[in-house]
Each structure stands twice: as structure tokens, then as C-alpha cells.
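Subject: Predicted fold for Sugar phosphate permease, 410 residues

User T.R. writes:
Posting the sequence so we have a shared reference for the thread.
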Amino acid sequence: MGNTNKQHKWIAFFVVTISAGLIYRVPYLKTVFYDALVEEFKLTNTQVGTIMSVYSITKMIIYIPGGILADRFDNRKMLVGSNLMLAALTFWYATIPSLTGLMAIQFLLAFSNVVFWVSAVKAIRILADDNEQGSIFGYSEGIRAAAGVLINFAALAVFNHFVTTAQPLRYVLLFYGIVYTLLTIAMWLLLPKKSKEEARTSATFADYVKVLKIPGIWIVALLVMCAYSAQVASEYTTTYLTTIFGMTTVTAGIVATIRSYGIGIFSAPIMGKIADKTSSYSKMVMGLFVVEIVFAALLLVIPGKSSMLIPAIVTVIAFATVMYAIRGIYFATMGEAGVPKEFTGTATGIICAIGFLPDAYMNLILGKLIDSNPGAAGFKFVFGAIILFAVLGIVFALIINRMGKKNIKA
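User M.O. replies:
I've generated the C-alpha cells; pasting them so everyone works from the same file.
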């Protein structure tokens, strides 16, 4: 591959990855601008929950057909088209529509986000050689984390600038719409028209049925589900530090920001690069799950005293480092699991539909356990859940590793 082609490849990767890091900002507007959303759109808390349910349920339903679409059509057109749709929906959102309009927007946002995400994973996987999968997915995770931090700060700056106006959130949405439009133009200009893998693909319905029968896809999906379950459980570590160790609200905000955003910028790319030097991505995932178990066990046994706050904070951040490292390379195991590159979209749809399912039930289960067991006792279930899913993750990674060995011999 020539130097110019390499430069073009990495520029295209960078644009797609940044876009992938920003597509969820509008559907999840409530995470940063909850009060403004309620006030400007005249919503109740129940109505906010309703529009989020419309988005989440639609997304889960669309993952698999969205993945098939990503494989069936030109990847560049799918990325550009779905991002253009996202920009248009964001501008519609900025008109401050009624609740019915919001529900329609959230429904359509689910479609555009799913199609973009599965197409992005496919584009990223195709851009890299088989021995670069850890690096490219690790860099992707890091860049997406950095893009998320920067866009949050930029959106907050826009909001603060227009805070004295009647509807400051409208300007935030206009800002997002402009950013999405610019990224859409950049992708249209920079992405290759059709990859060699896509050029060879003339898949029929029977081919997609065969893809659904590939055991490796479902095992990778279960691996991702285990990693994501541990991630959802880890989101309770901030409230654990404040409730049990007496950490202040300001310190909690700093720790939460580092844990949720800062760590991923460095952890995933570094671990992805290291993973490329090893003989197997699945082995690396197994090792990381073992380390995750160690840190979760430490959180189980550290005494809940204010004098132990610093060791607890260090353990929480160390756990987050490992968690983001796993996130950075779990998609890289698709190769070992025998997933053909030309069907990455379909595979990603299945993996995401199953892998991100914990969003639907983990918070409900853990919240109930914490409420039913006041104090440190409730959080023991949280760390126990992390250990349980990490052990299951090791099992699925081991299965993928054995699949990889069989594929090499075949």
C-alpha cells in the first residue's frame, strides 16, 4: 500500500470515527441537558422516559435488519445517507416540535443511528488489515471518547452563550446539526467509493441466512454482552464512593468524568496496539477480564471508611482502564470467530442487538438490589455481578480462541 493510500485511509478512518462518537448526542440529549429539555419542550419526566423508550426499543428491533442493509449496499452511501438523515432530524428537533413530533424524531433517529453504527464498524474493520484490528478498534474507541468530551464542552459553551434567550437548547441543536452536516460532506469527499470486499459481494437472501448460522457471531455477541454488563454495573461506582466513603459531589464529578470519558481516550488505543502484537485478540480479552475480576474483588473487600477513599478511587479508575481496554478490542475478535469481512454489517447488527441488551434490564435489577440492601451490602451485588460477567466473558473468549485455532487449521 502506498503512502498516499495510507494517508487517505487514516483520514477516512478519523472522519468516520469522529462521526461515530457524535451520533448519540442528540437522541441522548437528556444526559447533559435534562432540565433544559424538560423546560423548553414542556415535558414531564414520564414523557422524557417515553421518548427514550421509543428510541431504545426501535434501536433494538432495527439492529439486525440495519446490519443486513449495511452489507447489501455501498458502505459509503450508507454512512453518508444515515448521517445526512441525522443532520436533517436534528434541524427538525431544533424547531421545538410537539411530543408527537419528538416521538417521530426519536424513532427515526434510532434508524439513522443503527445504520450509521453498523456501517461504521464495517468501514473501520475493512480499512485495517487482519493484523491491525486491535489498533484500529482501539484507536476508534479512544477517538470517539475524545470527540465526546470535546463536543460536550462545545455544546455547553453554546448553551451558556445563549442561556439568556428564551430557548438556548434550540441553538445547541442547531450547532449539532451544522456539525453533522459538515461531517457528512467530509465523508462523501473522503470515503472510498467501494472497497474490494464490497465489490466482491453479491449476496443473496440465502447468504444472509448462512451468516446467521455462523456460531462465532453469536459467541462474540455474548462476549460483548458480558463486557457491557460489567460496564453498566461499573456505573454505580461513583455513587458507591459518595454513599459509602463520603466522597464530595465535586470530587465525584471529577472521578466520573475521568472514569466515563478520560480513561477511554488512552486506554483503548494503547491496549489495541499491544493486542496487535499478541498471537490472539481473544487471549488478550481473557487476560483483561481476569484483571477486571481482581479490581472488582478489591472493591468488594476495601473497608467503607473515609480513610480508604483514595485507594477506592484508584481502584475504580484502574477498573475503568481495563473496561475501556476490553471495549477497544472486543470487535477485533470477529476475525478469530470466523466472521467474513463482507458480512461485518450483518454480524455487527446481531452483536449489538444482543451485546447491548443489558441496557434494558441491568439498571433495573441492580437498582432494586441496592434499594433492598441498604449501605455497602447492596453494592456487593454490583461487584459480584461484575465478577460473574467477567468469568462468563472469559468462557466466551476461550471459545472464540478455540474457533480461531480451528479456522487456522482448516
